[in-house]
Amino acid sequence: MISRFLHRLIIACVVLSFIGINEINALHIIGGDVVYKCISTDSMRKEVRYEITFTMYRDSKSNGANFDDPANFGVYRGSGNNWNFVRTIAGIRVQEIRDIDVSTNNPCVLVPVNVGVQSGRYVFQITLPIIDQNYLISFQRCCRNNTILNLVDPGGTGAAFTTEITSDAQKTCNNSPTFNNFPPVVICVNRPINFNHSASDIDGDSLVYEFCAPLTAGGTDGATTPGSPTSCTGVTPSPQICIPPYDEVTFLAPNFSFLRPMAGNPVVTINSQTGIIEGSPNILGQYVVGVCVKEYRNGKLIGTLRRDFQFNVTTCEVAVTADLKASAKTQSEYTVNSCGEFTIDFLNLSTDVRYIQNYYWEFDIKGKIEIYNSRNVSVTFPGLGSYKATMILNKDLPALSECSDTATITVNVYPSINTDFEFAYDTCVAGPVVFNDNSTSGAGPVLKWMWKFDNEGVSQNQNPVFEFDKPGLKAVRLIAEDVNLCKDTLIRNVNYFPVPSLIIIEPNTFTGCQPANIFFDNLSTPIDDTYKFEWQFGDGNTSNVLSPTNTYTETGTYTVVLKLISPIGCETTKTWPNLIKVVPSPVAGFSYTPETPDLYNNNVSFIDESSGAVAYLWKFDSLGVSLIQNPSYTFRDTGVFNISQIVLHPSGCSDTATAMISIYPLVKFFMPNAFTPNNDGLNDEFIPKGSFVGLRNFNFTIWNRWGDRIFETDDFTIGWNGQRNNTGETASPGVYAYLIEYIDPLGEKKILKGQCTLLR
Hints:
mainly beta; Immunoglobulin-like; 6 domains; 6-stranded mixed sheet; about 0% helix; disordered N terminus
């Protein structure tokens, strides 16, 4: 089954042969941005007046809808995910509709004729009260082109273009930044782009650039059949009903995201300081890209300028470029060298083959001109020497005269070179290998040698001596080169498996505390895990690994022996008398009371239960320490604390025991049995009293004798004032039931019931 991305890619490649696909619905939106300019402020009325400019971009070749004329815009107040509708700006007419230039300055760059972009502007002024909240002004419209490659369901994805005027922007009569240029309509596939997407700010604020997710709004409801096109899923959503926040478009993961909106090598990125977009798109298609410009003043973010636009990545390369496989290249000059071969195959790498109508090769063979007209040619030369040739693309085609290209070729036929060498070494004793060069060349003596000894080293000496660090089947390569730069390569294997001349091991300690885990690091060379190892640790334990670990459970002194056997049968043995000494260790341990301390029972006594210890160090988390055997500590705050006991043996060995102690807060409160809400400052509220530290999900209700709930709160600092649901209507004197529910610091649900008497 073809993947969704591959399916979309095939569609895009077909469509990009004539990008302007016919869309009869409102598939026309390809971008937009919104800027605002402060006209004036009225300090007496605390108002600010702005000029708002919405610039929209549409695909003029898609047969989609024209610009909305007139258009409606929504005004909201709030921030983040909480916005309230303020008003609708209705009946704004589009103006200054113009075509965006899609041409290039290179006559050999092919730009599809069915690519077209128009821009239109909506301008209006609005007076706003200066508030401590932000204003958001938006335009919502569906839909985008079906052929967009980096979005999920692009044909059903609309656009929301917004500008947010922050509280700081209102108070300072701030002006938003404005973009300096519109992005290129057509981008050439596999060619680098370097577009300056910077903005200017007349207030001199600092600007930071980033890719961001474009916003979406609306849908296809009512686009082709009667319905509610102004609903939130319609073509033109209602500003009053469809309030922000707006969803972000859904990028087609995992190939695309708002940070990586286009395929590229290198990937397309934006410079956060300059706004320059760089990269080299490498997949044909249409891509939605969002750019945000964050506006900072004195280090504080006061606004964000957003632009949403569509890149068309298509084939628009230089029509033809002459190229061929060669030994050396300098612009249009090519050198082809052959060493010992008189028949040479010329591999043509010229591009783009779709725009090359003919090939013309001309070879001067000792005064005789040979002509070929195929893309690749094979030519047999009569002998050693230097020959001249020319390759011309689209020769004698006036219509393609500006897209013709020529390569001038020098062919050198040199004598052959033959690389050869031999080597000698002691197979069982680690040492150097001696290499002798036997290479020859028909052009004279060999001048250069490049040896590579597996992956362990190199040499440019003719007859090198090399010692391998590691054993194994070593691939040794020699490249020999003569005066004509002709080269030949030979690879031979060296079966290198000697035993070390000196066995070296390094224990992680020579004196260990019981039980002692000793790691023996085998530093002998050259060895690896293909060798056999016979370890004896002196305590009856053995091992057959390269660098083992042994646990000594008893005290004493131990002799260690190691025997090495190479894969080809070479062996050696080493003994280390009395290498390891194991001394006694203490055993740490303790208990404490109380077992479940809390904030009111917070003095904890620690009882030593260690053995073999002569000194003690207690650490009460980061709060304090003690050196006595059985200490106590008072915890002043709640929390979870790490307690450590470190004990010391006369041998110098130590041991550590740890425990985690939790000091919990306690919820303790009581309820009075009567209250008098007469506003004399005494007992005017029926309210719980006591400690509420750590309490969660508190709920306090009052019920009359008929089962009616007449008071409720989730705030333990608010009591009942004797009114019915705080309406101002006083409750009659008498007995009322109360119910309190909460979750204590240990996560247990608690319920407290009782009665109170209201006295008046």
